[in-house]
Write a structure and sequence with these properties.
The chain has 258 residues and is an alpha+beta fold. It has 5 helices and 5 strands. The chain is elongated.
Length: 258
């Protein structure tokens, strides 16, 4: 009798151990499945992000090639034509000297503006002279319009950002200025670039009407800024209050010193 009871107990224990092993095996297999699934999802997300960045980079390359071509055309063709017109004006003599002088001044301004525009479109100019000089020229030209009070301040020896990052950064600055001009109804625009440890901090502030971030969806302009910020390893911060202007901060990680 005792032996029968012992056999039953051992049988029950054996079944329990088997069930526990089965559950443990199933749990381990499930964990392995989840780990592999998460790894695949992360890899898929990484590849998707890499594809988007490659696509954006290709789009920007095509855009830069177009800008460069337009810049060269403006500089070589339209600028040359205006220079010839100006030369012809100077041969008219004193028939109406005041009008001729005024037209000469306007032609000189048009030539200068076109030259500046061609430089802002030309990626090679930005690579050679740096984004700071291009940005300063951009703000100076904006100030000369008389529409805005402009302030530009940048530390002299900011770290270089390589060949492509300065172009993308300058396009971001252009995009921010375009948004201010189109939407902000501002009177004052301020630019400041400083070095904070290993980061370049760029702050562009306006005293325009501002907007409610929660009440709007991200438009193409904001999406372009965010995508370009990702490409140059930068963070983008936008602080705005309706009626109190907008401040856009670009924080760029600088390359390590070798």
């Amino acid at each position: 009798m005792q032996k029968e009871k012992l056999d039953i107990i051992l049988g029950i224990l054996s079944v329990c151990v088997f069930v526990l092993l089965l559950i443990a095996t199933a749990f381990i297999l499930f964990r392995i499945y989840l780990k592999k699934k998460n790894t695949l999802l992360l890899e898929k997300e990484r590849m998707s992000l890499q594809f988007e960045q490659t696509l954006l980079h290709s789009k920007l390359e095509i855009q830069e090639q177009t800008f460069t071509h337009i810049g060269h055309e403006i500089h070589d063709n339209i600028g040359q034509v205006l220079s010839f017109v100006r030369l012809n004006l100077n041969t008219l003599g004193a028939a109406d000297e005041q009008k001729v002088n005024r037209m000469d001044e306007l032609m000189e301004k048009a030539i200068t503006d076109l030259r500046n525009l061609s430089h802002s479109l030309d990626a090679d100019y930005i690579r050679t002279n740096g984004w700071q000089k291009a940005a300063e020229r951009l703000f100076n030209d904006l100030g000369k319009t008389g529409t805005y009070t402009v302030s530009f301040s940048a530390e002299k020896k900011l770290p270089t950002l390589g060949q492509e990052k300065p172009i993308i950064l300058f396009r971001m600055i252009q995009e921010i200025l375009n948004n201010i001009i189109k939407h902000a109804k501002a009177k004052t625009i301020q630019f400041e670039a400083t070095l904070d440890n290993d980061k370049i901090m760029i702050v562009i502030t306006d005293d325009g009407k501002g907007f409610d971030r929660a009440a709007i969806t991200a438009g193409a302009g904001l999406q372009n800024l965010e995508s370009r910020a990702t490409l140059i390893d930068a963070n983008l911060y936008i602080h705005t209050v309706p009626g109190s202007g907008t401040s856009v901060t670009i924080s760029i990680n600088t390359p390590p010193v070798e």
